[in-house]
Design brief:
The complex is a heterotrimer.
Chain A: H1 14-18, H2 28-38, H3 40-58, E1 80-87, E2 93-99, E3 104-108, E4 114-117, E5 129-134, E6 137-142, E7 149-151, E8 162-165, H4 180-216, H5 218-231, H6 236-247, H7 251-259, H8 264-278, H9 281-288, H10 293-329, H11 341-350, H12 357-384
Antiparallel strand pairs in A: 1-2, 1-8, 2-3, 3-4, 5-6, 6-7
Helix pairs in contact in A: 2-12, 3-4, 3-12, 4-5, 4-7, 4-8, 4-10, 4-12, 6-7, 8-10, 9-10, 10-11, 10-12, 11-12
Chain B: H1 2-28, H2 43-52, H3 59-71, H4 86-121, H5 126-140, H6 143-157, H7 170-199, H8 202-209, H9 214-251, H10 257-267, H11 270-298, H12 304-307
Helix pairs in contact in B: 1-3, 1-11, 4-5, 4-7, 4-9, 4-10, 4-11, 5-7, 6-7, 6-9, 7-9, 8-9, 9-10, 9-11, 10-11
Chain C: E1 6-17, E2 20-32, E3 37-41, H1 48-55, E4 63-72, E5 75-76, H2 82-88, E6 93-96, H3 100-103, H4 110-121, H5 126-139, H6 145-148, H7 158-170, E7 176-180, H8 188-205, E8 208-212, H9 216-222, E9 225-230, E10 233-239, H10 240-245, H11 250-257, H12 298-302, E11 313-314
Parallel strand pairs in C: 3-8, 3-9, 6-7, 7-8
Antiparallel strand pairs in C: 1-2, 1-4, 4-5, 9-10, 10-11
Helix pairs in contact in C: 4-5, 4-7, 5-7, 7-8
The chains are: A alpha+beta, B mainly alpha, C alpha/beta.
The complex binds adenosine-5'-triphosphate, iron/sulfur cluster (SF4) and magnesium ion.
């Protein structure tokens, strides 16, 4: 203890001693942004949603097909296939693949472009065989026993020479020979349009309704909230169903139907926020300084209620997407040939036994989108909810 | 307490009346009228039909007639199936819908709550991660996607369960699973977060400071409090099961009310649509009342007489 | 002096979160003797509550005890297995928390909450436990005790709830009662009632009490010895009279200086010393008080001072034999 050097007993300069390291203080939005960026699933989701939006807007322009172009000759083509290769005497190779569910052969080139359906000779209905002449060789399609086989001239089974992606229809075609990829992108367009427009409509109705109820308070509030209570007794989807019965199916109808029903949550949130904010001093201060009602609403109350509102909005988008696809799935949404993820799924269900892969894309699309919006919603809630602020 | 229930019943009647009125006028707002799709109907037949169903009367008279019918629990005849009443349609579909729905509610409680507890108790360890992963999937993926994918995998591919029908208990597995999937996940997540929040409460520390065993702390002090929010979602659960049954009954070809409803919509069977909607509303309100009573049992702070004010 | 009931040595507790380690308690030592009331004072965040929670290992999930011992009844509470520790909690050591509004379970009747403690630690039938609960309610002066057993916490006022908490803590005649700011959340008039009740019960039951408080008036009135905490450390300990008469630590002096007159009821709450306490996520290497201490020296910043002095110990470099003399601290004022 006695080895403390004397100069250590000198007084510290006072200002140096008092200088306390303080962490830089962040504003609400800086803090929220920081938390959101730190949330990996939310960031990935934002990326996914941006890609989805870009794909939905611009994707169809890059496709040679439209969502309604049918090519019945090339129906139910899978997105990938096992190819057979047959070579003639001059070394020219013909490649083709077998669609095991409709027993058609399709010619393809080496890189996986589908060239067309191959014409064979008459089917032998009894032996369940169909002869083809490919690259000068007699090839037989034998579907007597499943899975179907390709037999070469000497009767031995032909082996596949490898597999390839479908370069003509990246996602394959549906039962009417329409390009699945472009229909998917159109589905995204429909789903996102419905979701965003309906959400926006709900947003305004909800803000308006909840804002008035909360701001007026008293009897008006009580009656308005009773009405909301009555409305929300019945599942909101049921109203959408009823409205769709009245309007008849179609894109506009579904937007109106969803847009006019799902505002009750928003109204409740906005009202709650406003009620709690009304108690606070700065609102009273603004009022005593003579600010008008609309001014107080837009200048003071809404900016403070914005966090919970954004959270409710991001939660509303996936439910709108879901309801739209749900309605389309049960046949009350958009009408054919328009594609939405719901109709795509229900079309895929029709061919589920023969072409289960067709279920994959719409199911994956809607699921991933729902995931993304859910993660984003969770992330935003964690980022914006003041209760989680440190 | 009895006055509270009476009050609630009064409120329910009011709500029901509002819904009856709303659906009635919505259905009568359909352009054209119910028989419009039958193009080949001769005008005189159409007039006869209109007369038969009272459509030739002014709308308010029809409305009064309909209200009277409802007061006697008569939802009127079907437009599409002559001689079949909407009551009969509902009665035919009810057993199937009730059974699958009840099983789904049981699944929600019996799976969702324990999964949530397991996750909360093992916070950030593998059981938690696993449960939360499954729950996230269950919340995000629409029920009709789950249903069709399961139909393909378990019925078509593996052949473990029938693709349709409810001839034996196996037939219930997929519909109940698809119907309850979302809410099992939701309740698991809710139970977990609610329990974790409860764990942080001061009274949980008090319970531990008393020397109570972990089981006592969890079940007596923790679970009951964290179940309060879980009970509040049971109302929405039932509502969701109703709409869920529209697709699930269609996908698995179950002869329930949901399928009947969707069928009525495609058939434009307006009286059936109205009747089933009203039936749903009434059933839901009874469920919500039950849930509210349950809620008051769980949390003594909720005074039933005050809740209605 | 008889052997201490509880003897805490070098207790260290940290919290682990995304922000990293927060060292809430950084090596706390003190003794509690039988039949005495030990006061713990210190600014908010100095680690008082965490110290007490650590003694019974009641920390929430993110907290961890990093070292030290707490000897109670010949056993080290820090080394005890969970089962044995549970036999001590609520039985030999009772605990009262700051906020009676949140410390009682809202969904159980108060009677049940008292009785379950008795049933847990005593071989008693429910009827016996009930009788004991009524006795306890009478002890803490809850009127019409028998009827109120059936009530729920929300039907009680704050003061009444704190009485219920005291009844729970006393249910099994503990040897030690830990009361963490038992009156802070209550109305001023109720505060005094509860404190006098505690003091009275302590005398009658002969237990030892650890009383955490912000209120120096309370300290002067009811405690026998004090522990002054700052930055997760004990800055000074000693008999209450010595400490009030001749505070040896600049922090204690600061605390006392902010109290003009102990008899003046209106001014006896702690008013803060200028500056703010250190961030426990990055505790300073030297004396935690350096940034706010009027006498801070180079040495203070360089190294944590040890405790100087027996009986009334102070953790301050000024009490080092080589330290320069500062009037009022290590040099008796003329
Ligand atoms: N759950 C926790 N997570 C992280 N840090 C915590 C946690 N609980 C307490 N702390 C930190 O531990 C330190 C000590 O807290 P403690 O509650 O013991 O203070 P206190 O002296 O009781 O204050 P008060 O007078 O306000 O009750 C504080 O700096 C606080 O930030
Ligand atoms: S050690 Fe130094 S800084 Fe700390 S209290 Fe003593 S004099 Fe002040
Ligand atoms: Mg404290």
């Amino acid at each position: 203890m006695s080895d403390i050097s004397p100069n250590m007993w000198e007084k510290l300069p006072q200002d140096e001693a008092v200088a306390v390291k303080s962490a830089p203080s962040l504003t609400y939005w800086q803090d929220a942004r920081r938390r959101l960026w730190a949330n990996k699933p939310a960031v990935v989701s934002i990326g996914f949603i941006i890609l989805l939006i870009l794909g939905a807007i611009f994707g169809p322009f890059f496709s040679p097909y439209s969502y309604s172009d049918q090519n019945l000759k090339l129906a139910n083509i899978p997105p990938a296939f096992d190819t057979y290769a047959v070579t003639d005497g001059e070394g020219n190779t013909t490649r083709f693949f077998l669609n095991a569910s409709n027993f058609n052969l399709y010619e393809v080139d080496a890189s996986g472009h589908v060239l067309g359906i191959m014409r064979g000779e008459r089917k032998d209905m009894l032996k369940k065989q169909q002869p083809f002449e490919i690259a000068g060789q007699a090839i037989t399609l034998d579907y007597a026993k499943l899975p179907a086989r390709i037999l070469s001239a000497d009767g031995t089974e032909l082996r596949t020479s490898g597999w390839s992606w479908n370069m003509t229809y990246l996602f394959g075609t549906d039962q009417l020979g329409r390009d699945v990829l472009v229909r998917q992108l159109f589905g995204a367009r429909i789903s996102l349009t419905v979701a965003f427009v309906a959400t926006l409509v709900n947003f305004f109705i909800g803000i308006f309704y909840g804002g008035i109820a909360g701001y007026m308070g008293g009897k008006t509030d009580a009656i308005m909230m009773r009405i909301v209570e009555i409305i929300s007794t019945v599942p909101l989807t049921l109203y959408v169903v009823l409205l769709m019965v009245v309007f008849d199916s179609g894109l506009l109808s579904i937007i109106i139907a969803i847009g006019s029903v799902f505002w009750v949550d928003m109204a409740r949130i906005v009202r709650g926020q406003i009620l709690s904010l009304k108690q606070q001093d700065y609102v009273a201060a603004a009022r005593t300084m003579g600010a008008s009602t609309p001014r107080i609403l837009t200048r003071h109350l809404l900016p403070n209620a914005i966090g919970p509102i954004i959270i409710t909005l991001t939660m509303l988008i996936p439910s709108a997407i879901f309801i739209e696809s749900f309605m389309s799935f049960i046949g009350l949404g958009v009408t054919p040939p328009l594609a939405s993820w719901g109709t795509l799924t229900s079309e895929a269900v029709e061919t589920l036994r023969a072409y289960p892969h067709q279920l994959f894309f719409p199911a994956a699309a809607i699921s991933l989108t729902m995931f993304a919006f859910n993660f984003l919603g969770d992330g935003l809630r964690d980022a914006l909810d003041p209760r989680f602020r440190k | 307490m009895p006055t509270y229930i009476l009050q609630r019943l009064g409120m329910m009647l009011l709500t029901l009346w509002a819904i009856v009125t709303l659906t009635f006028f919505l259905m009568h707002a359909v352009p054209g009228g119910p028989f419009v799709s039958e193009k080949m109907l001769a005008p005189e037949i159409q007039a006869a039909l209109n007369a038969k169903y009272g459509l030739d009367q002014p709308i308010w008279a029809q409305y009064i007639t309909y209200l009277k019918g409802i007061l006697t629990l008569d939802l009127g005849p079907s437009f599409k199936y002559p001689g079949v009443s909407v009551n009969k349609m509902i009665a035919d579909g009810l057993p199937v819908t009730m059974r699958t729905g009840l099983l789904a509610v049981i699944a929600v409680v019996a799976l969702g709550v324990p999964l949530g507890i397991i996750a909360a108790l093992n916070r950030n360890k593998w059981p938690d991660t696993t449960v939360m992963l499954i729950a996230t999937i269950g919340v995000a993926i629409p029920s009709y996607v789950i249903a069709t994918v399961m139909l393909y995998v378990f019925a078509l591919r593996l052949g473990w369960v029938p693709t349709f029908g409810l001839d034996n208990w196996r037939g219930y597995i997929l519909p109940v699973f698809a119907l309850s999937g979302f809410w099992v996940s939701f309740v698991a997540r809710l139970t977990r977060s609610s329990l974790l929040e409860t764990f942080e409460q001061d009274y949980m520390t008090t319970a531990r400071a008393k020397g109570l065993r972990p089981g006592q702390v969890l079940f007596k002090h923790g679970l009951r409090n964290s179940l309060v929010p879980v009970v509040t979602v049971l109302g929405p659960v039932v509502a969701n099961l109703i709409t869920g049954s529209f697709v699930i009954e269609q996908i698995f070809a179950l002869p329930g009310i949901g399928r009947q409803f969707v069928l009525s919509i495609t058939n434009r069977d307006y009286t059936a649509i109205m009747g089933i909607t009203i039936f749903y509303a009434a059933a839901l309100m009874v469920m919500i009342l039950i849930v509210d009573l349950l809620y008051a049992v769980l949390d003594p702070r909720i005074k039933l007489s005050e809740a209605s004010a | 002096m008889s052997a201490p009931v509880l003897s805490v040595r070098d207790l260290k507790t940290s919290f682990f979160s995304q922000r990293g380690e927060v060292q809430a308690v950084r090596g706390v030592s003190f003794d509690v003797h039988p039949g005495e009331i030990l006061g713990i004072v210190g600014e908010s965040g100095s680690g008082k509550s965490i110290t007490c929670m650590s003694i019974l290992r009641l920390l929430k999930s993110t907290g961890r005890i990093m070292g030290g011992s707490a000897n109670f009844d010949g056993q080290d509470l820090m080394a005890l297995d969970q089962g044995d520790l549970r036999d001590i909690r609520g039985n030999k050591i009772g605990m009262i928390f700051q906020d009676p509004m949140t410390s009682l379970n809202p969904t159980l009747s108060v009677g049940e909450q008292v009785m379950e403690t008795i049933l847990r630690h005593r071989k008693a039938t429910r009827a016996e436990a009930r009788a004991r609960a009524i006795e306890l309610f009478e002890l803490v002066r809850i009127p019409s005790a028998a009827e109120r057993l059936k009530s729920y916490p929300h039907e009680f006022s704050g003061g009444m709830r704190q009485r219920v908490m005291i009844a729970i803590a006393l249910a099994c005649d503990p040897k030690l009662l830990i009361a963490d700011e038992p009156t802070t959340a209550l109305d001023v008039t109720i505060q005094r009632q509860i404190l006098l009740l505690l003091k009275d019960l302590q005398k009658r039951l002969g237990m030892a009490v650890i009383l955490i408080t912000h209120d120096l008036g309370v300290i002067a009135e009811v405690t026998d010895r004090i522990v002054v905490m700052y930055g997760g450390l004990v800055m000074e300990t000693g008999p209450v009279h010595d400490l009030f008469a001749t505070p040896k630590h600049p922090y204690t002096q600061g605390l006392l200086a902010s109290v003009p007159d102990l008899r003046d009821d209106t001014h006896r709450r702690l008013t803060p010393i200028p500056g703010s306490p250190p961030d426990m996520a990055h505790p300073p290497e030297g004396c935690p008080f350096t940034a706010r201490c009027p006498h801070a020296m180079q040495q203070c910043q360089a190294a944590l001072p040890p405790v100087f002095g027996e009986g009334q110990g102070a953790r301050c470099w000024l009490h080092h034999p080589d330290a320069p003399k500062v009037a009022g601290v290590n040099e008796v004022a003329a």
